[in-house]
Write a structure and sequence with these properties.
By secondary structure, this protein is an alpha/beta fold. It is built from 15 helices and 19 strands. It folds into 3 domains: 142 residues, FAD/NAD(P)-binding domain (3-Layer(bba) Sandwich); 143 residues, Guanine Nucleotide Dissociation Inhibitor, domain 2 (2-Layer Sandwich); 100 residues, Guanine Nucleotide Dissociation Inhibitor, domain 1. A hairpin with a 2-residue loop joins strand 12 and strand 13. Belongs to the Rab GDI family. It comes from Musa acuminata subsp. malaccensis (Wild banana).
Length: 446
Protein backbone atom coordinates (compact mmCIF):
# COMPACT_ATOMS: atom_id res chain seq x y z
CA UNK A 1 0.00 0.00 0.00
CA UNK A 2 1.96 2.99 -1.26
CA UNK A 3 -0.52 5.78 -0.58
CA UNK A 4 -0.48 7.60 2.75
CA UNK A 5 -3.68 8.27 4.66
CA UNK A 6 -4.36 11.23 6.92
CA UNK A 7 -5.97 8.89 9.45
CA UNK A 8 -6.29 5.13 9.90
CA UNK A 9 -9.21 4.17 12.14
CA UNK A 10 -9.10 0.76 13.84
CA UNK A 11 -12.32 -0.82 15.08
CA UNK A 12 -15.88 -0.17 13.92
CA UNK A 13 -17.44 0.67 17.27
CA UNK A 14 -19.86 3.60 17.25
CA UNK A 15 -17.26 6.14 18.43
CA UNK A 16 -14.78 5.11 15.74
CA UNK A 17 -17.45 5.14 13.01
CA UNK A 18 -18.68 8.61 14.00
CA UNK A 19 -15.11 9.95 13.88
CA UNK A 20 -14.46 8.23 10.56
CA UNK A 21 -17.56 9.91 9.12
CA UNK A 22 -16.77 13.36 10.54
CA UNK A 23 -13.13 13.28 9.35
CA UNK A 24 -14.14 12.09 5.86
CA UNK A 25 -16.69 14.91 5.58
CA UNK A 26 -13.84 17.30 6.51
CA UNK A 27 -11.92 16.09 3.46
CA UNK A 28 -9.37 13.92 5.27
CA UNK A 29 -8.21 10.71 3.60
CA UNK A 30 -9.46 7.93 5.91
CA UNK A 31 -8.78 4.18 5.95
CA UNK A 32 -11.02 2.25 8.35
CA UNK A 33 -10.00 -1.30 9.36
CA UNK A 34 -11.44 -3.88 11.75
CA UNK A 35 -10.32 -7.36 12.80
CA UNK A 36 -14.00 -8.39 12.89
CA UNK A 37 -16.13 -9.21 9.84
CA UNK A 38 -19.03 -7.05 11.10
CA UNK A 39 -19.68 -3.43 12.01
CA UNK A 40 -20.12 -2.19 15.55
CA UNK A 41 -17.22 -3.67 17.52
CA UNK A 42 -18.18 -3.64 21.20
CA UNK A 43 -21.32 -1.63 20.35
CA UNK A 44 -22.73 -4.16 17.89
CA UNK A 45 -26.21 -5.77 17.98
CA UNK A 46 -26.48 -9.58 18.06
CA UNK A 47 -29.04 -12.07 16.76
CA UNK A 48 -30.30 -14.69 19.22
CA UNK A 49 -27.89 -17.35 17.90
CA UNK A 50 -24.95 -14.90 18.17
CA UNK A 51 -26.03 -14.00 21.71
CA UNK A 52 -26.08 -17.68 22.68
CA UNK A 53 -22.70 -18.29 21.05
CA UNK A 54 -21.18 -15.37 22.96
CA UNK A 55 -22.54 -16.23 26.41
CA UNK A 56 -23.47 -19.96 26.28
CA UNK A 57 -20.85 -21.29 23.82
CA UNK A 58 -22.39 -24.08 21.73
CA UNK A 59 -25.86 -24.34 23.26
CA UNK A 60 -28.78 -23.58 20.95
CA UNK A 61 -31.47 -21.08 21.98
CA UNK A 62 -34.86 -22.67 22.83
CA UNK A 63 -37.41 -22.49 20.00
CA UNK A 64 -40.04 -20.82 22.20
CA UNK A 65 -37.98 -17.59 22.08
CA UNK A 66 -38.80 -17.22 18.38
CA UNK A 67 -36.72 -16.56 15.27
CA UNK A 68 -33.05 -15.69 15.87
CA UNK A 69 -33.06 -13.22 12.95
CA UNK A 70 -35.75 -11.10 14.60
CA UNK A 71 -33.47 -10.28 17.53
CA UNK A 72 -31.13 -7.29 17.53
CA UNK A 73 -29.66 -7.34 21.04
CA UNK A 74 -27.45 -4.31 21.71
CA UNK A 75 -24.19 -5.02 23.49
CA UNK A 76 -23.96 -1.40 24.67
CA UNK A 77 -27.64 -0.47 25.12
CA UNK A 78 -28.20 3.29 25.15
CA UNK A 79 -31.02 5.67 24.25
CA UNK A 80 -30.52 9.03 22.55
CA UNK A 81 -31.67 12.33 24.06
CA UNK A 82 -34.09 13.76 21.47
CA UNK A 83 -32.39 17.16 21.77
CA UNK A 84 -28.97 15.74 22.62
CA UNK A 85 -25.53 15.88 21.08
CA UNK A 86 -25.78 12.64 19.09
CA UNK A 87 -28.98 13.83 17.38
CA UNK A 88 -27.15 17.07 16.49
CA UNK A 89 -24.29 15.04 15.00
CA UNK A 90 -26.74 12.85 13.03
CA UNK A 91 -28.50 15.92 11.59
CA UNK A 92 -25.24 17.80 10.94
CA UNK A 93 -23.87 14.86 8.92
CA UNK A 94 -27.12 13.79 7.23
CA UNK A 95 -26.86 10.25 8.67
CA UNK A 96 -30.55 10.58 9.66
CA UNK A 97 -31.46 9.55 6.11
CA UNK A 98 -30.08 6.05 6.75
CA UNK A 99 -32.07 5.48 9.95
CA UNK A 100 -35.57 5.53 11.41
CA UNK A 101 -36.23 6.41 15.04
CA UNK A 102 -39.09 5.90 17.43
CA UNK A 103 -39.73 7.68 20.71
CA UNK A 104 -39.11 5.77 23.94
CA UNK A 105 -42.30 5.35 25.99
CA UNK A 106 -41.25 6.09 29.54
CA UNK A 107 -38.62 7.45 31.91
CA UNK A 108 -38.84 6.35 35.54
CA UNK A 109 -36.94 6.68 38.80
CA UNK A 110 -36.66 4.24 41.70
CA UNK A 111 -37.52 5.67 45.11
CA UNK A 112 -38.08 3.86 48.41
CA UNK A 113 -38.70 0.50 46.76
CA UNK A 114 -41.14 1.77 44.07
CA UNK A 115 -40.79 3.24 40.59
CA UNK A 116 -42.28 6.58 39.57
CA UNK A 117 -42.51 8.51 36.31
CA UNK A 118 -39.84 11.23 36.29
CA UNK A 119 -41.47 14.67 36.58
CA UNK A 120 -39.52 17.04 34.34
CA UNK A 121 -41.52 20.30 34.31
CA UNK A 122 -43.35 22.48 36.84
CA UNK A 123 -46.70 21.06 35.61
CA UNK A 124 -45.54 17.44 36.01
CA UNK A 125 -44.08 18.24 39.44
CA UNK A 126 -47.53 19.22 40.68
CA UNK A 127 -49.07 15.96 39.42
CA UNK A 128 -46.29 13.65 40.63
CA UNK A 129 -46.97 11.07 43.34
CA UNK A 130 -43.26 11.12 44.12
CA UNK A 131 -43.62 14.11 46.46
CA UNK A 132 -45.94 15.40 49.17
CA UNK A 133 -48.05 18.53 48.67
CA UNK A 134 -45.62 21.09 50.15
CA UNK A 135 -42.61 19.51 48.46
CA UNK A 136 -44.45 19.70 45.11
CA UNK A 137 -44.75 23.47 45.50
CA UNK A 138 -41.06 23.86 46.36
CA UNK A 139 -40.06 21.61 43.43
CA UNK A 140 -42.35 23.55 41.08
CA UNK A 141 -40.61 26.82 41.99
CA UNK A 142 -37.22 25.22 41.34
CA UNK A 143 -38.36 23.82 37.96
CA UNK A 144 -39.68 27.24 36.91
CA UNK A 145 -36.31 28.79 37.84
CA UNK A 146 -34.48 26.21 35.68
CA UNK A 147 -36.94 26.54 32.76
CA UNK A 148 -36.65 30.36 32.77
CA UNK A 149 -32.85 30.47 33.23
CA UNK A 150 -30.97 31.90 30.25
CA UNK A 151 -27.21 32.58 30.24
CA UNK A 152 -27.57 35.99 28.60
CA UNK A 153 -30.61 37.11 30.65
CA UNK A 154 -29.30 38.34 34.04
CA UNK A 155 -32.90 38.89 35.22
CA UNK A 156 -33.47 35.13 35.06
CA UNK A 157 -30.49 34.43 37.35
CA UNK A 158 -32.21 35.65 40.54
CA UNK A 159 -28.90 37.03 41.78
CA UNK A 160 -27.07 33.69 41.48
CA UNK A 161 -23.89 33.25 39.43
CA UNK A 162 -24.31 29.59 38.48
CA UNK A 163 -20.69 29.41 37.31
CA UNK A 164 -19.62 30.06 40.90
CA UNK A 165 -22.28 28.72 43.27
CA UNK A 166 -22.62 24.96 43.67
CA UNK A 167 -25.67 22.84 42.88
CA UNK A 168 -25.95 22.16 46.61
CA UNK A 169 -26.22 25.95 47.27
CA UNK A 170 -28.98 26.44 44.65
CA UNK A 171 -30.97 23.44 45.86
CA UNK A 172 -30.75 24.57 49.51
CA UNK A 173 -32.21 27.94 48.46
CA UNK A 174 -35.37 26.06 47.47
CA UNK A 175 -35.35 23.83 50.56
CA UNK A 176 -35.80 20.58 48.62
CA UNK A 177 -35.87 17.21 50.40
CA UNK A 178 -33.17 14.58 49.86
CA UNK A 179 -35.46 12.29 47.81
CA UNK A 180 -36.33 15.19 45.49
CA UNK A 181 -32.65 16.09 45.12
CA UNK A 182 -32.00 12.44 44.30
CA UNK A 183 -34.33 12.28 41.31
CA UNK A 184 -33.37 15.77 40.07
CA UNK A 185 -29.65 14.96 40.11
CA UNK A 186 -29.81 11.41 38.81
CA UNK A 187 -33.00 11.01 36.75
CA UNK A 188 -33.22 14.53 35.23
CA UNK A 189 -29.66 15.88 35.16
CA UNK A 190 -28.45 12.28 34.64
CA UNK A 191 -25.40 12.56 36.89
CA UNK A 192 -23.83 9.19 37.72
CA UNK A 193 -22.96 9.92 41.35
CA UNK A 194 -23.35 12.72 43.92
CA UNK A 195 -20.12 14.61 43.15
CA UNK A 196 -22.18 17.08 41.04
CA UNK A 197 -23.58 18.63 44.25
CA UNK A 198 -20.28 20.40 44.90
CA UNK A 199 -19.66 21.45 41.28
CA UNK A 200 -20.87 24.72 39.68
CA UNK A 201 -24.66 24.64 39.37
CA UNK A 202 -24.58 25.67 35.70
CA UNK A 203 -23.79 22.06 34.65
CA UNK A 204 -26.84 20.65 36.42
CA UNK A 205 -29.16 23.41 35.18
CA UNK A 206 -28.03 22.86 31.56
CA UNK A 207 -28.52 19.10 31.89
CA UNK A 208 -32.04 19.61 33.30
CA UNK A 209 -32.88 21.98 30.45
CA UNK A 210 -31.65 19.40 27.92
CA UNK A 211 -33.93 16.79 29.51
CA UNK A 212 -36.97 19.09 29.44
CA UNK A 213 -36.29 20.24 25.84
CA UNK A 214 -35.83 16.62 24.72
CA UNK A 215 -39.08 15.64 26.42
CA UNK A 216 -40.92 18.44 24.61
CA UNK A 217 -39.52 17.53 21.18
CA UNK A 218 -41.84 14.61 20.40
CA UNK A 219 -44.42 15.11 23.16
CA UNK A 220 -43.74 11.55 24.30
CA UNK A 221 -43.48 10.01 27.74
CA UNK A 222 -39.70 10.30 27.81
CA UNK A 223 -36.90 12.50 26.40
CA UNK A 224 -35.37 9.58 24.54
CA UNK A 225 -35.47 8.17 21.01
CA UNK A 226 -34.05 4.90 19.73
CA UNK A 227 -33.39 3.53 16.22
CA UNK A 228 -35.58 0.82 14.75
CA UNK A 229 -33.63 -2.47 14.52
CA UNK A 230 -31.27 -1.46 17.34
CA UNK A 231 -28.03 0.43 17.70
CA UNK A 232 -26.14 -1.74 15.23
CA UNK A 233 -27.67 0.53 12.58
CA UNK A 234 -25.75 3.59 13.85
CA UNK A 235 -22.13 2.52 13.11
CA UNK A 236 -23.23 1.37 9.65
CA UNK A 237 -24.89 4.75 9.01
CA UNK A 238 -21.66 6.62 9.77
CA UNK A 239 -19.65 4.06 7.76
CA UNK A 240 -21.85 4.84 4.75
CA UNK A 241 -21.27 8.55 5.31
CA UNK A 242 -17.50 8.02 5.36
CA UNK A 243 -17.66 5.95 2.16
CA UNK A 244 -19.71 8.65 0.40
CA UNK A 245 -16.91 11.13 1.21
CA UNK A 246 -14.11 8.83 0.02
CA UNK A 247 -13.36 6.78 3.13
CA UNK A 248 -12.03 3.24 2.51
CA UNK A 249 -13.28 0.27 4.59
CA UNK A 250 -11.53 -3.05 5.20
CA UNK A 251 -13.27 -5.54 7.50
CA UNK A 252 -11.95 -8.94 8.62
CA UNK A 253 -8.33 -7.72 8.73
CA UNK A 254 -6.51 -9.89 11.29
CA UNK A 255 -3.86 -8.63 13.73
CA UNK A 256 -3.96 -4.94 12.84
CA UNK A 257 -0.61 -3.87 14.31
CA UNK A 258 0.17 -0.18 14.77
CA UNK A 259 3.73 0.63 13.61
CA UNK A 260 5.89 3.21 15.43
CA UNK A 261 9.06 4.99 14.29
CA UNK A 262 12.18 5.48 16.43
CA UNK A 263 10.61 8.60 18.01
CA UNK A 264 7.61 6.56 19.17
CA UNK A 265 5.22 8.14 16.65
CA UNK A 266 2.65 5.97 14.85
CA UNK A 267 3.22 5.94 11.10
CA UNK A 268 1.09 3.05 9.85
CA UNK A 269 -0.80 -0.18 10.44
CA UNK A 270 0.28 -3.67 9.31
CA UNK A 271 -2.12 -6.50 8.52
CA UNK A 272 -1.49 -9.67 6.49
CA UNK A 273 2.07 -8.55 5.65
CA UNK A 274 1.05 -5.18 4.20
CA UNK A 275 1.58 -1.81 5.89
CA UNK A 276 -0.72 1.14 5.23
CA UNK A 277 0.94 4.45 6.10
CA UNK A 278 -0.75 7.31 7.90
CA UNK A 279 -0.23 10.50 9.91
CA UNK A 280 -2.58 9.59 12.78
CA UNK A 281 -4.21 6.47 14.23
CA UNK A 282 -7.66 6.38 15.86
CA UNK A 283 -8.71 3.21 17.70
CA UNK A 284 -10.60 1.65 20.57
CA UNK A 285 -8.64 0.47 23.66
CA UNK A 286 -8.35 -3.15 22.45
CA UNK A 287 -5.96 -2.21 19.62
CA UNK A 288 -3.35 -0.53 21.85
CA UNK A 289 -3.63 -2.29 25.23
CA UNK A 290 -0.26 -0.96 26.43
CA UNK A 291 -1.42 2.65 25.99
CA UNK A 292 -4.57 2.48 28.13
CA UNK A 293 -5.36 2.12 31.84
CA UNK A 294 -8.21 0.23 33.48
CA UNK A 295 -10.55 2.67 35.26
CA UNK A 296 -13.44 0.43 36.28
CA UNK A 297 -15.79 -2.36 35.27
CA UNK A 298 -19.40 -2.53 34.15
CA UNK A 299 -21.66 -5.29 35.46
CA UNK A 300 -24.74 -6.04 33.38
CA UNK A 301 -27.56 -8.50 32.91
CA UNK A 302 -29.32 -9.10 29.59
CA UNK A 303 -32.85 -10.41 30.14
CA UNK A 304 -35.35 -11.73 27.58
CA UNK A 305 -38.97 -11.40 28.75
CA UNK A 306 -42.51 -11.98 27.46
CA UNK A 307 -44.08 -8.88 29.05
CA UNK A 308 -43.37 -5.19 29.73
CA UNK A 309 -41.73 -4.19 33.02
CA UNK A 310 -44.44 -4.00 35.73
CA UNK A 311 -45.52 -0.55 36.96
CA UNK A 312 -44.34 1.27 33.82
CA UNK A 313 -47.78 1.78 32.22
CA UNK A 314 -47.15 -1.22 29.92
CA UNK A 315 -44.31 0.69 28.22
CA UNK A 316 -42.71 -1.09 25.27
CA UNK A 317 -39.52 0.88 25.82
CA UNK A 318 -38.40 2.44 29.06
CA UNK A 319 -35.52 3.67 31.18
CA UNK A 320 -35.49 3.32 34.98
CA UNK A 321 -32.75 4.98 37.02
CA UNK A 322 -31.96 3.62 40.48
CA UNK A 323 -30.00 6.40 42.26
CA UNK A 324 -26.95 5.24 44.23
CA UNK A 325 -28.27 6.51 47.57
CA UNK A 326 -31.47 4.46 47.21
CA UNK A 327 -29.35 1.31 46.97
CA UNK A 328 -26.51 2.22 49.34
CA UNK A 329 -24.05 2.18 46.42
CA UNK A 330 -21.31 4.44 45.09
CA UNK A 331 -22.87 4.72 41.63
CA UNK A 332 -26.30 4.51 39.99
CA UNK A 333 -27.93 1.44 38.48
CA UNK A 334 -29.76 1.61 35.14
CA UNK A 335 -32.58 -0.45 33.65
CA UNK A 336 -33.07 -0.20 29.87
CA UNK A 337 -35.90 -2.02 28.11
CA UNK A 338 -37.01 -2.20 24.49
CA UNK A 339 -39.15 -4.64 22.54
CA UNK A 340 -40.66 -5.76 19.26
CA UNK A 341 -42.05 -2.20 18.95
CA UNK A 342 -38.50 -1.11 17.99
CA UNK A 343 -37.95 -4.26 15.85
CA UNK A 344 -35.32 -5.70 18.22
CA UNK A 345 -37.25 -8.88 19.14
CA UNK A 346 -40.10 -11.06 17.82
CA UNK A 347 -43.68 -10.01 18.56
CA UNK A 348 -44.49 -10.28 22.25
CA UNK A 349 -40.84 -10.32 23.38
CA UNK A 350 -39.01 -7.66 25.42
CA UNK A 351 -35.29 -7.23 26.07
CA UNK A 352 -34.23 -5.62 29.34
CA UNK A 353 -30.72 -4.69 30.44
CA UNK A 354 -29.63 -3.91 33.98
CA UNK A 355 -26.23 -2.24 34.24
CA UNK A 356 -24.05 -0.47 36.78
CA UNK A 357 -20.44 0.34 37.58
CA UNK A 358 -19.30 -2.94 39.17
CA UNK A 359 -18.38 -2.71 42.87
CA UNK A 360 -18.00 -6.49 43.42
CA UNK A 361 -17.16 -9.64 41.44
CA UNK A 362 -20.74 -10.91 41.70
CA UNK A 363 -23.04 -9.35 39.05
CA UNK A 364 -25.90 -11.72 39.97
CA UNK A 365 -26.03 -10.30 43.51
CA UNK A 366 -25.07 -6.75 42.63
CA UNK A 367 -27.71 -6.31 39.91
CA UNK A 368 -30.53 -7.89 41.95
CA UNK A 369 -32.30 -4.56 42.81
CA UNK A 370 -32.73 -3.83 39.08
CA UNK A 371 -33.59 -7.41 38.09
CA UNK A 372 -36.22 -7.57 40.85
CA UNK A 373 -38.14 -4.81 39.03
CA UNK A 374 -38.50 -6.87 35.84
CA UNK A 375 -40.97 -9.56 36.91
CA UNK A 376 -40.65 -13.08 35.40
CA UNK A 377 -37.71 -13.47 33.01
CA UNK A 378 -37.37 -16.11 30.23
CA UNK A 379 -33.56 -16.01 29.99
CA UNK A 380 -30.81 -14.03 31.75
CA UNK A 381 -27.17 -13.53 30.72
CA UNK A 382 -24.67 -11.98 33.16
CA UNK A 383 -21.52 -10.21 32.12
CA UNK A 384 -18.75 -8.00 33.54
CA UNK A 385 -16.42 -6.04 31.27
CA UNK A 386 -13.47 -3.75 31.99
CA UNK A 387 -13.54 -0.04 31.21
CA UNK A 388 -10.40 1.62 29.86
CA UNK A 389 -9.21 5.17 29.27
CA UNK A 390 -6.20 6.29 27.22
CA UNK A 391 -2.97 6.70 29.22
CA UNK A 392 -0.86 7.96 26.31
CA UNK A 393 0.05 11.48 25.12
CA UNK A 394 -1.53 11.74 21.67
CA UNK A 395 0.57 14.76 20.70
CA UNK A 396 3.69 12.57 21.19
CA UNK A 397 2.61 9.31 19.55
CA UNK A 398 -0.18 10.40 17.12
CA UNK A 399 -2.54 7.78 18.62
CA UNK A 400 -6.07 8.84 19.54
CA UNK A 401 -7.79 6.21 21.69
CA UNK A 402 -11.45 6.24 22.70
CA UNK A 403 -12.63 5.45 26.22
CA UNK A 404 -14.68 2.30 26.89
CA UNK A 405 -18.48 2.59 27.05
CA UNK A 406 -19.90 3.32 30.51
CA UNK A 407 -22.99 1.88 32.23
CA UNK A 408 -25.30 4.84 31.47
CA UNK A 409 -28.35 4.26 29.26
CA UNK A 410 -27.98 7.41 27.16
CA UNK A 411 -25.35 8.65 24.70
CA UNK A 412 -24.27 12.01 26.12
CA UNK A 413 -20.95 10.82 27.66
CA UNK A 414 -20.22 8.71 24.54
CA UNK A 415 -20.55 11.66 22.17
CA UNK A 416 -18.58 14.02 24.43
CA UNK A 417 -15.64 11.62 24.07
CA UNK A 418 -16.01 11.71 20.25
CA UNK A 419 -16.14 15.53 20.22
CA UNK A 420 -13.04 15.73 22.42
CA UNK A 421 -11.14 13.34 20.10
CA UNK A 422 -12.29 15.25 17.03
CA UNK A 423 -10.87 18.48 18.46
CA UNK A 424 -7.52 16.84 19.29
CA UNK A 425 -7.24 15.33 15.80
CA UNK A 426 -8.32 18.37 13.76
CA UNK A 427 -7.43 21.23 16.13
CA UNK A 428 -10.90 22.71 15.74
CA UNK A 429 -14.28 22.62 17.51
CA UNK A 430 -17.00 20.47 15.95
CA UNK A 431 -19.71 22.79 14.65
CA UNK A 432 -23.01 21.42 15.92
CA UNK A 433 -25.12 24.50 15.26
CA UNK A 434 -27.99 22.75 13.51
CA UNK A 435 -31.66 23.48 13.07
CA UNK A 436 -33.18 20.98 15.46
CA UNK A 437 -36.55 21.35 13.81
CA UNK A 438 -34.93 19.10 11.24
CA UNK A 439 -34.86 16.48 13.99
CA UNK A 440 -38.53 15.95 13.35
CA UNK A 441 -37.45 14.27 10.13
CA UNK A 442 -35.10 12.08 12.17
CA UNK A 443 -37.86 11.14 14.53
CA UNK A 444 -40.90 11.18 12.34
CA UNK A 445 -41.74 7.66 13.48
CA UNK A 446 -41.85 9.05 17.00
Amino acid sequence: MDEEYDVIVLGTGLKECILSGLLSVDGLKVLHMDRNDYYGGESTSLSLVQLWKRFRSNDKPPELLGSSREYNVDMIPKFMMANGTLVRVLIRTGVTKYLNFKAVDGSFVYNNGKIYKVPATDVEALKSTLMGLFEKRRARKFFIYVQDYEDDEPKSHEGLDLNKVTTRDVISKYGLEDNTVDFIGHALALHRDDSYLDEPAIYTVKRMKLYAESLARFQGGSPYIYPLYGLGELPQGFARLSAVYGGTYMLNKPECKVEFDTDGKAYGVTSEGETAKCKKVVCDPSYLPDKVKKVGRVARAICIMSHPIPNTNDSHSVQIILPQKQLGRRSDMYVFCCSYAHNVAPKGKYIAFVSTEAETDHPETELKPGIDLLGPVDETFFDIYDRYEPANHDEQDNCFISTSYDATTHFESTVQDVISMYKKITGKELDLSVDLSAASAAGEDA
